Amino acid sequence: MISTIADASSLREAIHRQPEMMADLRLVAELGLPQGCIAAGYIRNFVWDVLHGYAGRTPLHDVDVLYFDPDCLDEEAEKAYDARLRERNPQLNWSAKNQARMHLRNGTVPYRSVEDAMRHWPETATAVGARLNGAGEVELIAPLGLEDLLSLQVRQGPYFHDHAAFLRRVSGKAWFTRWPCLELVEGEGGATPGLPR
Fold first, then answer.
1. Residue 140 CB partners (closer than 8 Å, separation 6+)
2. How many CB atoms lie under 10 A from the CB of residue 20?
């Protein structure tokens, strides 16, 4: 296994060296979305590909664009952002989601920010995003830290309380087939390779 991403600094640098990723981050930055970033599988899969030594990136089902706008909870606004992003890069399946309204779908109390919403995601390794700051530098958003992502551990998020749903999601994604060095972390007992039988 090739390990070229070991911390936040090397992750920012790895993203910076990817012209396609930088172009995508610029597209999102140009929208001027409040707290806008690209997150979830876009970052997670990239890191896991690098840590497995894969030459190419795993194809993405979609690109999750997060933002936080409590003044406009209309789903049509998200679709308009998707359309604008598709005009600029039609190769990707853009999926903008206003985290100020995601509590309605998830049946939770309202989130306070993009970071707060990400804290409630099913896995810690997925709760990582990136954006460009005003100087065009890569910034990371990782409210649950980077340790699990960078150590190839799949752990249930501390604020996601449906363990059965977590296991169904992990199993359904076939992550352990694509990235065989991943370890599933269950409870306090530590990591175990692969999915439970």
1. 8, 11, 12, 128, 129, 130, 146
2. 11
Segments of the chain with pLDDT less than 70: 1-3, 188-197
Answer yes or no: are the C-beta atoms of 122 and 160 closer than 8 Å.
yes
Residue 88 tokens read as: 């600029």
94-106 pLDDT, tens digit each: 999 999 999 877 7
Half-sphere exposure of 184 (CA within 13 A, CB side): 17
Query: How would you classify the pairing of strands 63-67 and 94-98?
Result: parallel
pTM of the entire predicted model:
0.91
Q: What is the DSSP letter of 57?
A: P
Q: What is the DSSP string of 135-159?
A: TS-EEEE-TT-SHHHHTTEEEB-TT
From the list 20, 49, 32, the residue with the least C-alpha distance to 149 is 49
pLDDT digits (tens, 9 = 90+) for 8-44: 999 999 999 999 999 999 999 999 999 999 999 999 9
107 DSSP 8-state letter: T
Q: How far apart are CA 186 and CA 197, in angstroms?
A: 13
